[in-house]
Amino acid sequence: MRPHRWLGALVVACCLLAGCGSSANIGPTGKQTRLLTVAVGVDPDTLDPMRQTTTTVTNIVQMVVESLGRVDQTGKVQPNLATAWQESADAMSWTFTLRTGVTFSDGAPFDAAAVKANLDREMDPNNVCPSCSTLAKAVKSVDVIDPGHVRLTMAMPLAADVLLGLISLANFGMMSPRAIQKGTPQYAQQEQPVGTGPYMLKDRLKGDHVTVARNPTYWGRRPVYDEQLFKTVPDTATREALVRSGQAQMVLLPPISDLPSLQKDPTVKVLLAASDRTIYFAMDTADKTQPLLQNVQVRQALNYAVNRDAIIKSTLFGAAESMTAPMAPSIFGYCQVPNPYKYDPDQARSLLQRANASGLTISLVAPTGRYMQDWQAAQNVANDLRAVGVNVVGPRTLDWPSYIGTVVVPPVKASVDAHLLGYAPQYLDASTAMQILDPSLIPPRGLATAYYDNPTVTGLIQKALVEPNRDARAQEYCDAEKQAWNDAPWIFLWVQKFPIVYSAQVTGIGSVPNESFYTVYAQPA
Amino acid sequence: MPEPLWRRLLRHRSATIGLTLLAVFALAAIVGPLVIRFDPVRQDLERILLPPSLAHPLGTDNYGRDELVVLVYGARLTLGLGVLAVLIGVGVGAPLGAVSGYLGGWVDMLVQRLAEILLAFPSIVLALALVAGLGPGLRNVIIAVGVSSIPGFIRVVRASALQLRELMYVEAARALGVSSGRILLRHVLPNAAAPLIVQATIQMGVAILVAAGLGFFGLGVQPPTPEWGELLGEAHTYIFRDANLATFPGLCILLAVLAFNLTGDGLRDALDPRLG
Amino acid sequence: MLTYVGRRLLAAIPTLWGVATAVFIMARLLPGDPARVIAGINASQDQVDHLRRQLGLDQPLPVQYLDFLGGLVRLDLGTSAHFGDPVLAEIGSRLPYTAELALAALAVAVVLGMLGGVVAAQRRNTVVDVVISTVSVLGISMPTYWLGLMLIVLFAIQFRLLPAAGADSPESVVLPAVTLGLLSVGLIARMTRSSLLEVLGQDYVRTARAKGVSPARVVVAHGLRNALVPILTAIGLQLGSLMGGAVVTESVFGWPGVGRLLLDSIFSRDYPMVQGLVLLFAVTYIAVNLLVDLLYVVVDPRVRYA
Fold first, then answer.
1. What is the pTM of this model?
2. Is B169 in CB contact (< 8 Å) with chain A?
3. Residues C60-77: pLDDT tens digits?
């Protein structure tokens, strides 16, 4: 045959061979390391770190854009792009030492000027940054000391854990200054983030997937997988089908009812990751139409009436733990209360009788598909309340926007007696967890939807927000929690776990207790 | 003497199947609740998702209720939903179609445009928007599904009315001074009865399916009301754990809608003078 | 002919205006505050108000309405509240997927439906006829998502033949297309059967058969061609249910089309996106109806439009 035919045959043969192994970039152990596919339930609304509101999307963005600090798998803030920090003696300024030798994936150097550009952008009141207001109010200015040091001058002091927690959020992530120049549209919204992280954004098909590819100039340990693909599959049963059929190697939040069989399945592993999401029925403690709910005995009675363990076992299939404080154990400042509300229907009935509330009628409302088995669990709770003689109207459901429009309202507009909510603080400090019991954050100013107002508790919370001594802080929060527990503004339910199911052929899947998954260092098993 | 309707219908074999199924379901819907006492609100978390057995011929559901009893109770709700939704559709659509087809002119144009506007929304989306606005629950699902069926009825009755307008005896009646209202009532509507019944029968099946579609999003009929569409919607996240939970309500819906469709087809063939 | 098209297009304008107004009102009647939904439940009230101003939702309703209509005239559908980019661009990137799905589904429906209809017509009133009639009605008798899930369990998990979700590979369109297509098989089969029966009884067909033309040729050459008119009607009629079915099918199979986008937009209260998508559906509906009517003229020489 003529030479170019040989060449042609060779090319075809190579293509065939490459095609045969196309899905396998074979690593040193002979295992596939090219692509990790993860199925998630939400389609990212925005990839701009500043605008993040959903944890799952934030997880993906954080593989590309890093922040000064990083929350590790035990919930503590560790050095990341900042290697050290120092609070001034008067607590009115913070100095951050920046990591040297780091560049953004577009080649721009990471230095103090870059930090200032990013923080200024994120705290710019004209920009949309839903989680930035706490820091924006507390920080007066960001100043460059030298290329390796940045100073935050405070307008008001903040406890160290609070500041560090905030500075580790994706919302205060560091993007290349070239990507967020003032005066360009990207200053307000940058959908193709350029960061310093272990991966870079490779491509995105809205409604279908986001792909990230390994960053060759990353300053830290090199990830194993060349690419990671996050596939949007809203339907929970279909998501599980993806991991069962091998189309995906990992899936978040599978159908809960299937956990027992998945745990027995040798081809997959189930990680019931710790989470900080607490689920509770917030009661309208200022209820004018149902004044009985203003009586703490009545509220305690409702807490005794619910059989949490049975519900966790049969509706949540073991993927939760009863609440033992108004916040999750993974949060700094958590302390277990001495008297959790055990299931005791007799006690519930007698408390109701003593409070002259035996014919109590209350209306319940719960979302559907928002939290793990939220709707089904609400049915179970209503059932338990009826068993102790309470007249339950509902529970009704609404779609999510209508739901928050109904429950996140000022006290005069409240129309339901109790509503189900799940609250997951963004960083693991009690200051955020206790926000929902702070009367200054009663809607429309915040999420304190039980309208709880106990001056003792409020005083403790405010003191702890600026308390410099860590142990004293923990004690203040502990006292506040115990008091709030006894006041029972909520029917305390459980702390959800964060179920992650992944193929047994993969390992190194981690999680952070704020409902984050961590697949950066995943590798074939 | 032409063959009576019922005999023509029964000669159509698939229609016979349909009618039989409908009779069975109707029986279950009416007699069932009288014979079996059941409180849909009561849960038994110790006995969820049990497989079929002598005590529970179809097993138990995710609240611990006996599946067979739940389905029998659901028959009344599901079939009732179909009937009521269609009544709304006929009640609004038929008069509009009759008036529009008979009077013609700008009334016709207006009604046509209105129907087109309604048809431009895919029915599940229209139903979802209505339910999102009104709030989920059996009553609002019936309203939402009923509203989405209106354009179909307008069209069917209008076509009939258009035909009738040309007929001699109608023109004669008008010349004699009979009021339009009387003509509509005594001639147009009865003439439209045949295609209307066919459309109504088929729409009952459609109504049940749209309600089931709403159940997929958790925004249809709400638990513990054991309407079949609601049961199927709740069951779909349990599909790997216990496929039966979805299969039984799914089969019931399938058979009921099939029954409506087959009967409707049979009625259409039986009532159509050309294909007899 | 051209005047006919012109008249139809002119008549479409008030309908489209009606649809635009209806969706404008309906979107705003949905309870819930879009700014709060997008800002998230953790955002402060300031942030929510700021976002509301950015979205233009603090303007009085008549102003919003006029802005909306003004944009429509310029073919500007506004900016998506959820994504932040132009609605038209967003729709443009997702529309090809729905188009692919709809065409594939139609293909499935037409092939299976016509095949079934032809066989049923030839073996009229036998068991085969009844079975085909019943089975073809099965498609429109079951909830779409149930069928979809069962197909996933069977073909993706049990037999590992096809992907369960997404649009990555060419074969991922198969399961969604079959799910969606089965919705229309029944109607097409029935129309094919009944119009074929009508045609096969005609004199000229009997003549052809008497002349010795093979039965297959009779059916195909004479029967089907003349039966095409009602079949085309059926295909046109199916469009409405195809669009509706696409919404659920795309949700079950994670298909990145406009059906799912519409759903997501309703749940995130993205007014511009909902308005744009509903208008898109309306335009498609009107356009396809017009196309089918025009095809009649081509297919059936007896049809003439004044």
1. 0.86
2. no
3. 999 999 999 999 989 889
